[in-house]
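Can you make up a protein sequence with its backbone structure tokens?

===
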Amino acid sequence: MVGVRLGSHGVHRWSTEEVDQRHALAYWVDTVCDQLLELDIDTPLRDRFRARLVQTDLGATTASLLEAERQRVHRTRAKIAQSRYSIFFLLQLRAGQMRLQQSGREAYLRQGGCVLIDGTEPYEIDCPEPTSALALRLPEDWLKRWVPYPARLCAQPLVGDGWGSALSAALSNIDVATCHQLALPGGAVAEQIAALLALTAGPTSPGNQRLSLYEDLMGTLRDRLHETDLTPLGVAADHHVSIRSLHYAFARAGSTFVEQLTRLRLERACAILSDVRVCELSVGEVAARCGFTDPSHFARRFRRQFGQAPLAYRHSKAGIHR
């Protein structure tokens, strides 16, 4: 795309300053649709519209800083039909003011305000003055590991004392241009944000009921994936359910115990291999920390999942030179 500038450490930048002012709005619409989400955008400042996007990956999420003049944004059914993925956005307004309408709800945001937006449903955003906002693009499947019913949170300001304040403070500390300098790898930072969002949301089941068996089981797998002898029978016993109930819970979610355990172990391996603070760990040691007893088996599964050998992945993601 014309005007794209690739910075170091995977930071991407787009700006209307790069194009003829007569085409600035069209350029901005194309940029947002290509890099963020398919949207309709209009502005009364067609002859002097300015906007800028800075973007980088943050683990499974994408972090974007958007700065723009007055604009009105629409996510229509037609645009939704063009989307290939189901995603949500966690947005923090850093300057200006914003009004969001979605699913019969209305949220007004000012500086520091946060809101979750459902990319699978129509919405409208009105920005009556120049705004600056951080937007984290959250894949639906990934988000639901933390917040099982994210649509219930959408278009409602995530404010208040306690966890809402902690979430806002954490988002305020994210500088898209320097995410590579954080003390933790991007995936770990994204998971911290998701955990704060879950705590802000509070109980996820109607009537404060306990989590579903599947969610309980997944929590156990995350906590104990490093155990090489973790088995369905042992996990079922820990949860006081039959082995049949365990397998049924995973089947209802369209998966199996082994598939989910392997996926979680490989994701943990990615996080370790991306962390320069532990770059001295051998691939065999990384495999062992993630519950794999055979380094060769680990390497084969890793390559099959991510298209790279573990060592090559470390070189590309952690900036380690051969």
The radius of gyration is 21 Å. Residues 1-7, 205-210 have pLDDT under 50 and may be disordered.
